[in-house]
Amino acid sequence: MTPLTGAARASALATVPDWSEVDGRDAIQRTFQFEDFATAFAFMTRVAFAAEAANHHPEWFNVYNRVEVTLATHDAGGLTDKDIALATAMDGMAAALA
Amino acid sequence: MTPLTGAARASALATVPDWSEVDGRDAIQRTFQFEDFATAFAFMTRVAFAAEAANHHPEWFNVYNRVEVTLATHDAGGLTDKDIALATAMDGMAAALA
Amino acid sequence: MTPLTGAARASALATVPDWSEVDGRDAIQRTFQFEDFATAFAFMTRVAFAAEAANHHPEWFNVYNRVEVTLATHDAGGLTDKDIALATAMDGMAAALA
Amino acid sequence: MTPLTGAARASALATVPDWSEVDGRDAIQRTFQFEDFATAFAFMTRVAFAAEAANHHPEWFNVYNRVEVTLATHDAGGLTDKDIALATAMDGMAAALA
Hints:
The structure is a homotetramer.
Chain A: H1 6-14, E1 20-21, E2 28-33, H2 37-54, E3 59-63, E4 66-71, H3 81-97
Antiparallel strand pairs in A: 1-2, 2-4, 3-4
Helix pairs in contact in A: 2-3
């Protein structure tokens, strides 16, 4: 698996418009906000199962109802299709809990 | 807290039409079905927080993508508003994950 | 994968002495009891990840601090090494939370 | 609830020796390391229930098997007994999963 570049990267990023590129690192990030801590943690649980199934884990920070996520593929040294797939899944899971 | 009876019971039950009364016991039940185990367990996690917050816990059975729930208020010896509230919350949470 | 029989079955069952055979079905069961609901659910979460990783899921019932588990391998029509492995893992996880 | 100071603070901190004070902020932090992601997330789930019960939530960052926690009481503007209590609970929960 190699990092996304060029046109493939641009079109992949276009599918996850709520995510932004991280300064100084080949990664993407998004902050999710939920009604309360319990809803935020339910989101994290659902993501945790998807992450474990894909053996691809997020870097994430949580405080109360906020979850800040950074995605990158460590083995590939940058952003790959695996990150886009997990970002897409997280978007859907967050929308379901909004 | 006393068990729901008469007209109050009938109108409470009307708000949770997907739940049915349990034979031989003053309780209600519903079976939820999800896409897979991970989704079923994410549902259970979200319910678990709500149950803990209300200090009112379900009786539930899970295998793979199926969750069978029975609700009753043990202290009151029957079905109460607490059960209707938890049933309503579970309906919403399940709908969000469907 | 075929159901455990004979001496292999006997020695496998001897490794999980807290589990008992289910009447009228080729399966094993154990009831776990925890301090409270939160601890019971933390146990269930840890088991859920192990079950998902092995693609082998328990049949389980929970109410408050009690978790009743039945293990059998549906595809094999009975008790297999997969069940013994999950039973062993659950024993360790429950002991850690006791 | 007021921030811990003086001798009360010193003796409170002495009960959680694995936690260190945060530079430039009245808070404490500890990094936990587990066997794998599933174990780290089981830890987080157990903590989540305790946090919700106390209505006192951690700031935490997770990637794979590592959980970095910062505790402070936002309403009090600093470190209080609530943080020491949650730190103590987290220490016990982590030890159980080690």
